[in-house]
Amino acid sequence: MTTLIEDLVNSTAGIPAQKYSAKDFATDQDVRWCPGCGDYSILAQTQRVMPDLGIPKHKTVFVSGIGCSSRFPYYMDTFGFHSIHGRATAIASGLKIARPDLSVWVVTGDGDGMSIGGNHFIHLMRRNIDLNVLLFNNQIYGLTKGQYSPTSEIGKITKSTPFGSLDFPFNPASLALGSSATFVARTLDRDPKHMQGIIKRAAEHKGTSFVEIYQNCNVFNDGAFFQFTEKDSKDETVVFIEHGKPLIFGKEKEKGIRLNGFSPEVVSLKDGKYSVNDLLVHNEKDTTLSFILADMTHKPHLPRPVGIFLAIDRPVYDREMDRQISFAREQRGIGDLKKLFTSGDSWVVQ
Amino acid sequence: MAQKTIENLEEVTIRFAGDSGDGMQLTGTQFTNTTAILGNDLSTLPDYPAEIRAPAGTLFGVSGFQIHFGSNEINTPGDHCDVLVAMNAAALKVNLQSLLDGGSIIVNTDGFNDKNLKLAGYTQNPLKDDSLSKFRVYEVDISKLTALALQDMTISGKLIDRSKNFFALGMMYWMYNRPLETTLDWLKTKFKNKPEILEANIRVLKAGWNFSETTEIFAVRYDVAPAKLPPGRYRNITGNQAVAWGFMAAAKKAKLELFLGSYPITPASDILHELSLYKSHGVKTFQAEDEIAGISSAIGASFGGALAITTTSGPGVALKTEAIGLAVMVELPLVICNVQRGGPSTGLPTKTEQADLLQALYGRNGEAPLPVIAASTPSGCFDAAFEASRIALKYMTPVILLTDGYLGNGSEPWMIPDLDALPDISPSFVTTPEGFQPYSRDHDTLARPWAIPGTPGLEHRIGGLEKQDITGNVSYDPENHDLMVRLRAEKIERIANDIPLSEVEGAPSGDLLIVGWGGTYGSLKNVVARQRAKGHSVSHLHLRYLNPMPRNVGEILLKFKHVLVPEINLGQLVKVLRSKYLVPATGFNKVRGLPLRSAELEIEIEEILKGKR
């Protein structure tokens, strides 16, 4: 006997994804983020990427927690679940384990995902459930009107830290890598093309894909990332990492990153001392390298790394669970409750 | 051979007690299984410390297992025991108070050396003074006899020491005329790859039997005839296993996949262990990183169309509270099973209590009503889990299922139900977008539709923000909020139309009504039966549905002069009954981490009947 879900999955298996446009993923709800918020760009890029994924809308689910970012599902014309603070990762985990046939996305923020949901976040990474996690990092609590967050820089003056914050920030990429994530990337709200590419790669990855998006909160933390996103500074402050390519940056591509022992350092390609051949070449399959690159994040003398830190294959939790079920059924046959109930010691009273 | 006589007994209660490493739970379970197969009715109570292997010989390391069995109906594990098997001095000291005057004590004399006596706090050896004069004491050097039985085997002293519980088991099998086969079969399966351990345990078990048969110590052995249970096929079952199987049966009859999101916690973990065995049945179990993820993953699975459950105990429910509120708001089916234990905080993890009723009924922010169902016997946990699932699916609501440590770990014979006779509880998923509104409601049940991801055209969003009636869009409208709060409450209230009326055991009116709920059922049933046998006008109402309550509860309460509500808490149901029905009900409350004792409740009842209370 099949379950109702198996019936549903089987009966809809033949329905292909339509030729969607970005507009097909917009809902009739008014978008309520503050004008100028970086979230608008993330929503637009996500809606633009969706038609390229070849996944029917009815197979797609967005799950979020609480915070500005977590309003996201209301604006995506897919299935959506706006849940409770910090738990989107846990809810999405249960959904994906129960329904491996769905494409499940988690939208979270630096407060939701790194603070109240930190525990669920690290365990999701190590389990490698096939979910896509988009973390909007604006380094502030926006919805509660401006308290410092676990990614705020030390010394941050906010409503709850009038004398400056004392705690050292998380680097979400390092936290994900330290939790044994299999796909870790960073992108920028003000770089639509780059973000689209990263979201697409995240969707294609089998296992948990984690994407940190630097997102400007123009009301409570305006300009937090401008040095990395604005034309006049970004060439000098950001290094885009790409698989198989040397790490080069600078307005005239005149600088590079070289490894001195395990430590990255900036070298000039102009003074004749170093050439491109001396530079660090990115390999997104190299876990050790991913730690070194992510660790550049809080080092002021180094450019901020943006791109895919790591993309490796490891067994996927939800697939492994299905495999265990299939294996058990091959070994023992499909479970029969009547047999189970009378298994072992039973007796008849006449 | 010594001359032995056989006496017939109607019922007997035996308590096995020893160090937590002595294997007393295993010994008790083996005796229970053998006794069940012989056809006795029975009830068991494991009573063990939270420490896994407390230091040997200490009072706090004593682990006990009590079995009450007979040829008549057995409703409780017994207030007191007739026989105490004490493997050391500490076990004697802790358990002597539960032994009836004139009862028998079988002691392992090796457990009464100076060190044991000191650890147990005895200044002199109780076996050597007259402090045990009102009991029959059988002194056996079980350790030495075990070692003798194994002397030609080259096995470690540790293994020899760990086999001695089987000597005690062999003695009890002889004394109560039970066959060895069930335990021998179990040993052969358990240790099929460890021939030495198998051989050692079989030898020691038989040595215990043979020793009893040949020694002069035991002159009498006892027979307890099979009970006259209703016809059918039976097996012995614990409450936790029955809960697990009840959910599996519900998933089967609902044509849904069963998903359990859970986090290890005593005394509920056995449900997780049990369900994790059944991969071939398609059961998915997820051991989450914490209690919150346990319920959150279940809510996710429910959104995806599974029969989703989470299992825990009181402290876990506290952590899950916010997520339960989310399930109330998004109106998804979910069963939260709370195997109650002693609280507050970490409390008494391995002991039983009924103090989470008000938490279940009211313990959430906002107006967050949900159905609450309580199992009343270990085997009844099966029906309770099935019924909780039925209500969750039909009314699109989280349901709290209350059991407790006694029910979860206790066992009794269970008449295996006919699966075909259980009702079909399969939900109707929405299949077409025509007229679909996420928060439209069924005319009768007020349940909202269940629209599963993967269904073309049903894309919609739900969440914890207040919903606009019908559309489910986010709404801050004051009138809409008032309406939704009332709709959610009425949906739960209407379940009262869909559950059986309460039935009074005994006369429908009279001097005194005993009202109980949950695991006190057996004790209360015995007490009321004895009171009625004495000619007192006492009846019993046991509530299975705590919210909503059956429609006739108020009516029933008014037909008695007094209403007494015994509970293992400081008076929670009595509070609800008083506020809901305006009756002057009074409480009888003992919060010791143990099942209620019949004797002290009977004193209270007789005081009430004499007009002294």
Q: Spatial order of the strands in the main sheet of chain B? A: 11-10-12-13-15-14-20
Record the strand order, biggest sheet of chain A: 2-1-3-4-8-7-13-9
CATH classification, class level of the largest domain in chain B: Alpha Beta
Largest beta-sheet characterization of chain A: 8 strands, mixed
CATH superfamily of the largest domain in chain B: Pyruvate-ferredoxin oxidoreductase, PFOR, domain III
What are the low-pLDDT stretches of chain B, counting only 5+ consecutive residues below 50? none
Structural class of chain B: alpha/beta
The largest contact between protein chains, plus residue counts on each side, is:
A-B, 67 and 73 residues
The total tally of domains of chain B equals 3
Mean pLDDT across residues of chain A? 97
Q: Averaged pLDDT of chain B, please?
A: 96
Q: Kindly, what is the distance between the CA atoms of the first and last residues of chain B, rounded to a whole number of angstroms?
A: 59 Å
Secondary-structure element pattern of chain A, one letter each:
HHEEHEHHEEEHEHEHHEEEEHEHHE
Shape of chain A from CA axes?
Answer: globular
CATH architecture of the domain at 17-229 and 315-342 in chain A: 3-Layer(aba) Sandwich
- What are the segments of chain A in which pLDDT stays under 50 over at least 5 consecutive residues? none
Number of helices of chain B: 20
